Amino acid sequence: MGQLPMARAVIDAVPLERMSGDGDRPCLVDARSVEDATLRSHAVGRDRHSAFAAFLDGTQHSDYRLVIGRAPVVVGRVAAAIRERVDRKLRAWGTPLVEERVYAPLAHLSPRERAALLDAAPGVVVDTTVPDADGVIPAPHPLLLLERAKFAVSRDREAAERTLAERWCAAEQRPLFIDGGIGGSEVVGGAACAIGVIKSHRTLYVDDGGLDVLFALAKGERTSVVSIAPRGRAAVYSWYLRLRDAAGHDALWGTVRVEVAPCADPTRRANDVSQWILAEMAPNAMPDARWDKMAYGVRNTEEFLRAL
Fold first, then answer.
1. Which of 10, 74, 195, 226 has the fewest CB atoms lying closer than 10 Å?
2. What is the predicted pLDDT for the residue at 4?
3. pLDDT, tens digit, for every residue of 106-120?
4. Distance in angstroms (rounded) separating the CA atoms of residues 188 and 167
5. pLDDT of 232 above 70
6. Is the dihedral of CA 269, 274, 280, 286 positive or negative?
């Protein structure tokens, strides 16, 4: 504040992660099956053995700290780590990544305000008013600018996770449980050791008929393997897996979507990986609210990052 006399402090704002935002619209996307003629369910069997050697996850926290003129300024912190299982205990693999940046709408600051901010936070200011594909700068609506900051922090967290995943794939062949997708990197998306487990389902890779198959999955069942290649991401094989009995819950409770690199035998690969994931459901990740979909190793990684 001493270096930014034109700024006003914000002392009562909640972290941006708790603010509502539209994000991607929920949708259904038809995907090409590489296992069955039409989407169907498969029982994967149960095996108490898990081949996962480590878990990768990241965290983010965004604080709305300042207002310069009418422009909101956010301080964002991202972190990512890999926790390796050694003698049934988890320990850090390599060096965790922890980064802090300032996110500000530079296009809506005066030249004097912009210069003062860049001087106060040299090398760590991220512009949240970068023009879109049509060359349009976002309007100075404060909620829009805060959403842009939140998404920019999310991109930086994903970049930190991607960096660690690529380091693991370059040094290891043992299976890595990644909390999230693997298609954001050609290196990770093509690595046999990388397994992505996605807990959120705003985009469902099924058609209208396949939705009934997905909702009817019983515990320990998966859908057919499909090939997906969202725009700007590597092509991967994917399927849905029911981890827990959904009786009394919503239709996607206890359901994750798995991503692996394309392979010659998708049926065997999907069954093996699904058994590993099911084996990781004990002990459960309570009291985390997402415990129905979360592996304990992922929760351990998040707790480790919060302690840094």
1. 10
2. 84
3. 999 999 999 999 999
4. 9
5. yes
6. positive
- 236-265 per-position pLDDT tens digit: 999 999 999 998 999 999 999 999 999 999
Q: What is the chain's mean pLDDT, rounded?
A: 93
Nearest partner of 224 among 77, 55, 35, judged by Cα: 35
Count of other CB atoms within 10 angstroms of residue 49: 7
**Which tokens belong to 220?**
């320990």
Give yes or no for a cis peptide into 140 (omega within 30° of 0).
Answer: no
- What is the SS3 assignment for 39-68? CCEEECCCCCCCCCCEEEEEEEEEEEEEEE
Total length of the chain: 308
Stated pTM of the model: 0.91
Omega before 283 within 30 of 0, i.e. cis: yes
